[in-house]
Design brief:
Elements (H helix, E strand, L loop, with lengths): L2 E5 L2 E4 L4 E8 L6 E8 L6 E8 L2 E4 L7 E6 L4 E6 L8 E9 L13 E2 L3 E6 L1
Parallel strand pairs: 2-11
Antiparallel strand pairs: 1-3, 3-8, 4-5, 4-9, 5-6, 7-8, 9-10, 9-11
């Protein structure tokens, strides 16, 4: 059974940093692309970043230069380092996984497995 468990969310002030973690189990971590999505209140879930393997990463324009996605194969964990947080980053952040690392995928329907989400709230 595949499980993705996120942690690291919280309430911070604008300009602060947070690091989210997602531990994956029940899958071959090195064969899966990992991604972060987020859903703000009243909005659809949107792509944030994906890491097929370290060195093959893609970001949404809204977070590029502020967020960094990385993965630790030894720990089956993917991270999202978020710097210079803004109130518009407030959302539930979800970890996602899909089998295959040869191509970049940024659509929600392309991912097979999802975590339960972790809340990030940024106050102004």
């Amino acid at each position: 059974q595949v499980q993705l468990v996120e942690s690291g969310g919280g309430l911070v002030q604008a300009g602060s940093s947070l690091r989210l973690s997602c531990v994956a189990s029940g899958l071959s971590f090195s064969s899966h692309a990992m991604a972060w999505f987020r859903q703000a209140p009243g909005k659809e879930r949107e792509f944030v970043a994906t890491n097929r393997f370290n060195g093959a990463v893609t970001y949404a324009e809204s977070v590029k230069d502020r967020f960094a996605i990385s993965r630790d194969t030894a720990k089956n964990t993917v991270y999202l380092q978020m710097n210079n947080l803004k109130p518009e980053d407030t959302a539930i952040y979800y970890c996602a996984a899909r089998y295959g690392i040869l191509a970049t995928h940024t659509e929600e329907e392309d991912y097979d497995y999802w975590g339960q989400g972790t809340q990030v709230t940024v106050s102004s």
